[in-house]
Design a protein that fits this description.
Length: 458
């Protein structure tokens, strides 16, 4: 990048907020994938006006701009694949207010997810979307990827809680979209257009999010099974019984052993799979639903189904689930976390398909995920330094996606398409839809400067 361009960026954001050293570029060249792309310059912004000025400048000189939060993404969405400006929003982390009457919170895009939830908790409220990275991920990143989480079955995902946003368009205009009301059908639903657009259609700078009252009672259960298929059938049958759990998580034997190696909390290493289940609400309904779950587990040959006896025991169980990915990452040099999602009625078929693919290619796969909403994370454990192994892994990934789409599923339930899945996008969507998406992109970003190289491979 030209020296005068860097100087202009320093005028906008401040000299100390513009980084060009190679060490900084390397640090900001990664996300949570195995990929690396170095930007030409890193700019830490503090408000929408600075973002607007940078985007207008970038359009004039046709310089790529890549928005970035905490870089916890798993599809390469915040990597500067074409170099250019890396726009870092981490310092835009204010939580402006919590409105306990309207059940709303207004935050900047760089606010950390767990901090938003903590702010809400002071009013006996909570922010339901809870991605596995909630302790570090930002609201802007959650919006860009439409992040889900453990509570998705009952409470939905990020898109269900975004009421309004301040967005800077690729050409630099600052717009406010959405409302603070519960209902609105005024014009096109531009909020939903932006949510999940992976930073390709605009840069979210501020958002008003919906909150819910904290349920007064909850119960957590741990169910153990001989095999993954029985556990998956139980997931399907619990929902069929009319119980919508707050969380319904499946963990296979590979992952159980990885977690136990890491945390040493006394998990049974010999079982084929376990379900971590939580119900919440009024105490009476929680007790009834817990009994229904125990009955369904027994009908599906569960080895055991036990209720957590204390808050401490509950916290241990859920810390184990949240440690699944980091535990698996300790096994092999390379860890590839996928995001296959199918209708709940087909979760058994997906589990069996993944197992068959793992056997076919003699590849270790640890499977865990939000089975209650059909979202599984087959995690490939390998060593990509071995080129033959890398070829096998590519075939494994492709076959998992092919099987997922055959089962009426989707390539991504919560991680996004980004770089890693762009070449598979046409497995799921038609040529007509693909062209329509590109038309929308071109209408908002005629110079293709905002997060180029994502979603589309042509």
């Amino acid at each position: 990048m030209k020296e005068e361009h860097v100087k202009y960026l320093e005028e906008i954001a401040g000299q100390d907020k513009v980084l060009t050293d190679i060490e900084d570029k390397i640090c900001f060249g990664f996300d949570s994938t195995r990929l690396q792309y170095l930007p030409d310059v890193i700019v830490k912004v503090k408000d929408s006006r600075q973002i607007s000025s940078i985007l207008k400048f970038a359009n004039e000189y046709k310089i790529p701009v890549t928005p970035r939060g905490a870089a916890t993404g798993l599809s390469g969405g915040c990597l500067a694949v074409n170099g250019g400006i890396l726009l870092v929003l981490l310092e835009m982390n204010r939580i402006y207010y919590v409105n306990p009457i309207d059940l709303l919170v207004e935050v900047q895009a760089g606010a950390i997810t767990v901090d938003v939830d903590k702010a809400a908790s002071k009013y006996k409220l909570f922010y339901p979307p809870d991605p596995g990275s909630m302790k570090t991920s930002t609201i802007g990143g959650n919006i860009a990827e439409n992040a889900g989480g453990l509570r998705g079955l009952k409470y939905g995902v990020t898109k269900d809680y975004v009421n309004s946003m301040e967005v800077v368009l690729p050409t630099g205009e600052i717009i406010d979209i959405g409302t603070r009301t519960v209902k609105s059908v005024t014009g096109y639903n531009l909020v939903d257009l932006m949510v999940g657009s992976e930073g390709t259609l605009g840069v979210v700078s501020k958002a008003t999010l919906a909150l819910l009252p904290i349920p007064p009672a909850r119960a957590s259960l741990l169910a153990l099974f001989n095999n993954l298929t029985e556990a998956a059938k139980t997931v399907r049958d619990i929902v069929a019984e009319g119980v919508i759990t707050a969380t319904l998580e499946l963990v296979d034997n590979v992952t159980i052993n990885a977690i136990e190696d890491y945390l040493k909390i006394g998990l049974n290493r010999n079982v084929g799979a376990m379900l971590l289940i939580e119900v919440d609400g009024q105490q009476g309904s929680v007790d009834i639903e817990a009994e229904v779950i125990k009955k369904v587990c027994a009908q599906n040959n569960a080895l055991s189904c036990k209720l957590a006896a204390s808050e401490k025991e509950r916290d241990v169980l859920w810390s184990a689930r949240r440690a699944a990915l980091s535990s698996l990452a300790r096994i092999k040099p390379s860890t590839i976390l996928e995001d296959a999602t199918v209708p709940r009625s087909r979760i058994v078929e997906l589990v069996e398909a993944v197992n068959n693919i793992a056997k076919k290619y003699d590849i270790m796969i640890g499977t865990f995920g939000h089975a209650g909403d059909g979202n599984l994370h087959p995690t490939i454990l390998t060593d990509l330094r071995d080129k033959e192994e890398e070829k096998k892994v590519e075939k494994v990934i492709e076959e998992i996606f092919i099987e997922t789409v055959k089962l009426d599923g989707t390539l991504s339930g919560e991680h996004g398409i980004g770089l890693t899945k762009a070449r598979f996008l046409k497995l799921e969507i038609s040529d007509e839809v693909y062209k329509l998406m590109k038309k929308i992109k071109h209408a908002l970003d005629p110079n293709n400067i905002l997060n180029p190289g994502k979603l589309f491979v042509d």
